[in-house]
Amino acid sequence: MKPPAKRLSGPDSRPTVSRVASIFFCERKAVFDSVFGEIKTPETLRQAELGEAEHARFEREGAAAIERASRDERCFIATAVFGAGAPETRSLRDFRDRALMPSPAGRLFVRTYYALSPLIVPALRKHAGLAAAVRVILRAAVRLADEAGRG
After folding, report:
1. Are the CB atoms for 146 and 91 separated by under 8 Å?
2. Which pick of 30, 58, 82, 98 has the fewest CB atoms within 10 Å?
3. Mean pLDDT over residues 10-17, rounded?
């Protein structure tokens, strides 16, 4: 007869990111652990500690990136085609802070944008037709960003 599954209570009752990921990584191990208890060798305890430290670092970096972004006035392309104080530029900055900066993929996108967009701005200033086309595209992006913010 199998022993009853352990129910966690207290501070250990919340599943960690590692625990949730392990369910997708190895469903059999998750079931085994829930029925028989987790086997914690010194090495698994050390690895768990390293994993928790990495998760904490990730959370700190994400929070710091969001904080920096909220003070960041850069928005090179929108500034070039609309102006620094334009509602469109503010809307795109808000979208960056609200939707992009909280996630690793969003932060990567923003870093890539910051690296590449200063190279594009001179062409926008030199070619009015290109700037007009970019304005049309960015206005559509602003509409989508504003709808996402209201959603």
Report:
1. yes
2. 58
3. 55
